[in-house]
UniProtKB/TrEMBL annotation:
Keywords: Carboxypeptidase, Glycoprotein, Hydrolase, Membrane, Metal-binding, Protease, Transmembrane, Transmembrane helix, Zinc. Its cofactor is Zn(2+). The chain crosses the membrane at residues 31-53. SUPFAM superfamilies: Carboxypeptidase regulatory domain-like, Zn-dependent exopeptidases. The keyword Protease applies. Gene3D superfamilies: Carboxypeptidase-like, regulatory domain, Zn peptidases. It comes from Chionoecetes opilio. Belongs to the peptidase M14 family. Residues 89-382 form the Peptidase M14 domain. This is Carboxypeptidase M. One of its GO terms (cellular component) is extracellular space. InterPro entries: CarboxyPept-like_regulatory, CARBOXYPEPT_ZN_1, CARBOXYPEPT_ZN_2, Peptidase_M14, Peptidase_M14_domain. The keyword Metal-binding applies. GO terms for molecular function: metallocarboxypeptidase activity; zinc ion binding.
Amino acid sequence: MIPLCRSSDMEGSNEDTEEDKRVWCRRMKPAMWYLMMLIVGFFYVYLTAIQYIRGQQALQDPPSTYLKQYDPQYFDESLISPANALTFEYHNYTTMTDFLRAMSATYPNLTALYSIGKSVQGRDLWVMVVSSSPYQHIIGQPNVKYVANMHGNEAVGREMLLHLIEYLAKNYQTDDYVHWLLDNTRIHIMPSMNPDGFEVAREGTCQGGQGRYNARGFDLNRNFPDYFKQNNKKSQPEAEAVKQWISKIQFVLSANLHGGALVASYPFDNSPNTIFQQFTSTPSLTPDEDAFKHLASIYSFNHGTMHLGLPCKPGAPAFTNGTTNGAAWYPLTGGMQDYNYVWHGCMDTTIEMSCCKYPMAKQLPKFWQDNQEALVRYMGEVHRGVRGFVVDTEMRPVEGASIKVKSRDVGFQTTKYGEYWRILLPGHYSLEVYANGYDPAVEDFLVVDTNPTLLNITLYRASPEPDALPSGPNNHHTPPHSPPPSAAVPTSNPNASAIAITLFFTLTVHLVKFYRLFKYFSDRVSHHRRPVFIGGPAQSQGRPVPVHRPEFRAFSPPSRTKSPAFLIFSAEFSIASCPSIPEP
């Protein structure tokens, strides 16, 4: 505590009383004391605001409901053995869970394990984040996901993703491409979307349906809303968990790993004429056909044999370059890849990894050899195309702005921080941006092959009549049933920006407001060795005010100086205690 100086000091006494000798007084000009107090508070809030704007505060991404496994009461990491080298064998739910927990404990700076929900029988739907910042969403960094074992008896993808997790974590320090990928991407890996089905499937079964469905007998890849046809199938817990997951995290690129063929399939899986489509091989093309075909080719040509397009058996279809449009192969309603694309703007493909759905474990090393490079290179494609931020004229992010590339009617939206990404091939494009309360914006840009194009968009406020603005690109191609929710990245404190910005500007105003007070004190305060803060201007030729006038004494109890809010309160109180200050 800074003790108060006695008002008798102002009377010019040069002799100290006994009481005076026991008092320590701050030898500091009042203006300097206030300046120090305000500068500390100003920079505290300034840094907080900058931290917020740059997105360096920890976002709970995935949302806090997914983070219960980080609670020591949920599982004791001290009891988990370090991860051993993963063997080429099939892992049931228990051994898979043990492996994921061991990897999370062994590589805490690169991995984070969370569950997005439960299966019908109560098994966790595990997801492993692999990134150099696994617990934080870094602003501007795209999210990618892999999902496998959606059909419980298609088991190769499940094991490939477990090996991918191990490969990425172990090679971060030694492989330049893996290092770059993890430094610039957040990778979410779900080894099994249907753990209940896997438990009843049988190794060595190449065809048949045992284990394909969830515990209630539903095909999870027919359980999502569909653009072309209303899907009346009852939504299952596994599909609901995935829908909630991808509505909370804005994924840019995804792949869904299956078995039973050797091909990379891309949207659309369904078509307007489903009845006739099943008798033809007519593709159902998306507005992003070129980008989807490229993504499928990236996987196929980095795979050991997929690009050859060989049929799995006599009479089975052969696929040119190992790729196909989904509906051209066979149409289906309620597929996950179409849902990802239309509802959330995520570029999703389906990778059929093996001719046999559940081959013998001895074949797993060959499958890993064929798929390792393809799995890694496919994720890198998220850094192709255009990316940037949508902000207003005050540099504040515009959340939920609807964006589309001109002539491509399936759109996407900005995140809470105004971020957006779109995978595009080299060429000239125009980006159209719409947001409620703003004038539409159109920007031309060029995409090159070597690096993504950074394009930031500034929106200007408008006061249009109701329904005057376009409703946005998502509604240009909106499914007639179950319209898509807005995409947003969750944050643990949605009011953080308002608090930081309010304090920031309040302190700025006060700093200007107190300038004259500082100048006045600096010019007129007594230079006595124990200066006193005075409550008003001296009216007697610059001499200190008489002792009966109000005194403004500086003190700062440590127990009260805990936040910029206290500094603001103190400054407001100080101004209220002083008479009006004349112009200098």
